[in-house]
Amino acid sequence: MKTLINVLAALLMVNCGSAQVSETTVIESPALPDSGDMFTNSERIGEMMNYLASNDLKGRDSGSEGIEMAAKYIENYFRSYRLQPYFETYRDTLSNFKKPSYNIVGIIEGNDPDLKDEFILIGAHYDHIGTIKPENGDFIANGANDNASGTSTVLELARYFGTQKTNKRSLIFALFSAEEKGLLGSKHLAKKLKEEGLNLYTMLNFEMTGVPLKGKDYFMYITGYDMSNLAEVSNKYAKENLVGFLPTAKEFNLYQRSDNYPFHGEFGVPSHTFCTFDFTNFNYYHKVGDEPDLMDFGHMATLVNKTIPVIEGIANAPSQEIKLSE
Prior knowledge:
single chain; globular; about 325 residues
């Protein structure tokens, strides 16, 4: 989360494998299981994470060769699972950053003749901070938790809806660049979509989902919890206490520190970030230790599997259930 580093340094002093995989690699889809509850698994998540957060990508700094490899990986993934490019291509070139940088944006059109004109945007940033001051000879800030984890979550959600086509409303899947430079990727896309008159219903963002919460009676939290009824709606479709309130998130104003915020600003619609980082369960934020081997791939797979019925419910409800708080 951009600017969160300053909060961590000032308030908490908090301290997130290099697989040799081709930049054009796309993991082939296994046979779809009978139950949507088990759509993905830790092995599949691990393969994705070990590529996106590998040393080969050198920390995925915006405008670098490493993030270009990640961009190609995401594009091939979208193409493989039948997402259409939202623009002429999957790439949305940033106009607010000096180096060539791209959001990767795909769409799955809704299957209802009326509801397909309402859009849900599902996103995560895929950039990180690149190379930094060495620690024990390691200078690559791999960015596994921040935010290869959120990227992998969004890619697997895209795979589900791309292959199942169960959504009545249209789904936009966006992976943002230059989040670490000040939310520049999401700011660029939000402004662009607003100018073209997109009918955005809600924006659902995923950030730092690589390790589980501890000692909580909910599985993940959302930023801006009291700004809408998204948690209530999510828990209804999950049929459990999936989404809860983290007081620290409100205390540190995390709502404004990730890619949900530009969409709230431009569209004034419910826009939230789902997260499982609570300042106590991970000590390598913006450090070289943010490596895949510290991630809990089983937890990540469970998060995807539990989130699928939530998005499906939101996408298929006859009316827009998520409302901003008064």
